[in-house]
Amino acid sequence: MEQEKFKLPDNYKLVWSEDFTKPLDTDFWLIPDCPRRGGYWSPGQVIIENEKLVIRTEYVNGGDQRGYHTGCLIWKNLRATYGYYEIRCKLQNTKGEWPAFWLMPDSLKGKNADVGCEIDIFENAIPYRIQNALHWNSYHSQKKNRHTADDLYEGFHTFALDWKKDSLRFYYDNKLLWEVSDPKLISHTPVKLEISTEINGRIHKGNTPKPGRLFWIGNGIISDQGNKLPSDFIVDYVKVYDNGELSFSDSNFVSFDGYIK
């Protein structure tokens, strides 16, 4: 029996949205410029094009940062706890590329998820796989869910999270992928919203490459001959709804320290 699609309840109220019809407000968005994993996060790769956000991945040949460049957007000061988060976007089947929509606290040093947890609403590191994930305790602890979607690269899709005090529900095209109800896995800590693409390869720490450590995020690498670059992660909109429990805060500071995911 086909799963019934989730319908947004009438009492859920839209409280924040970005439809990318105007230039990015850099007072609101942080656009990192730094080494990141096997490449670089570069502001020039974050583009508004045809009233869509485009995070473009390509090889840059020249200068001090020769290599694979892509990008990221992060809420600068706004923080949220609980709520319903939704993105509508189009992915490319590019090996070694890692698009994601995620929520990040200012610290993951707590030993338990309930006091600070990264919530990955979706990641696509392995072809045709959607991954939802929770990371805490400085990445020493985690829980993951994976789902195969044969239509993943066909047009635009929505990914969403309904985060409440007693549950986390992850959705793909309004169909439930994963439900978490264990109180030990539900964070109650404010987070910033992030939209990003990353490249597999050597891990960087801050602005200094850390040689010798390699990691693998999926099948294939960005230099795969079957890849067509540039590759665009295209976002139509991002929306946040008050699900009856959402709270916003403004921390009034920029927090980005090149943390390793």
Structural descriptors:
11-stranded mixed beta sheet, 261 residues, disordered C terminus, 7-stranded antiparallel beta sheet, mainly beta
Name the overall outline. globular
Q: Report the major sheet.
A: 11 strands, mixed
Unreliable segments of 5+ consecutive residues:
253-261
Helix content: under 10%
Quick structural summary:
By secondary structure, this protein is mainly β. The protein has no helices and 22 strands.
Structural overview:
It contains no helices and 22 strands. 38% of the residues are buried. The model is unreliable at 253-261 (pLDDT under 50). A hairpin with a 5-residue loop joins strand 12 and strand 13 (129-136). Strands 1, 3, 4, 5, 6, 7, 10, 15, 16, 17 and 21 form an 11-stranded mixed sheet that branches. With 261 residues, it is mainly β.
